[in-house]
Amino acid sequence: MNKEIVISELKLKAVRSSGAGGQNVNKVSSKVVLTFDLNSSLGLTEEEKEYLKERIATRLTQDFILMLNCDEDRSQLKNKEIVIKRFLTILTNGLKKPKIRKETRIPKSVKEKRIKEKKNIGLIKQSRRKPEI
User: Fold this and answer.
1) For 21, which DSSP code?
2) Which of 29, 30, 37, 64 would bridge with 14, disulfide CB 3.0–4.6 Å?
């Protein structure tokens, strides 16, 4: 993944935000909407695109476009920074390969201990029975 190319492909749009800000909310477009077209990206290889389509499928539209919103701050500039950081973390986490689990063997001593405990419990239960006449 080439971050510079990917960031240059982002489409950022400023929209009027809801929430705190008083009269400022009605005048200033501080909310930032980020859109990224996964199919037409030049910063990602075809393998990375396919892998991302599987990994972040719930966040993508039917046309494989990722859309993120940010209206946490009253400043448009800070909202841009926040949404770009969020976008990069989504991409990097989406491209991480999960660790392959290696099966481990159960040690012989653990197996022996378990069998010993089972036999011990069996003996205790056997001693509770009524004696045969």
Assistant:
1) S
2) 29
Whole-number Cα distances in Å, 88 to 10, 19, 101, 116, 127:
11, 26, 27, 54, 67
At which residue do the structure tokens 């990722």 appear? 66
Q: How far apart are CA 69 and CA 132, in angstroms?
A: 79
* pTM, two decimal places: 0.70
Which residue is listed with tokens 């011990």? Answer: 120
Angle in degrees, 0-180, between the axes of helices 76-95 and 46-55, rounded to the nearest 10 = 100
Alpha-helical segments (H) within the chain:
3-8, 24-27, 46-55, 76-95, 108-128
Residue spans of the domains in the chain: they are 3-95
Amino acid at 35: T
pLDDT tens for each residue of 107-129: 999 999 999 999 999 999 999 99
> What architecture is domain 3-95?
2-Layer Sandwich (3.30)
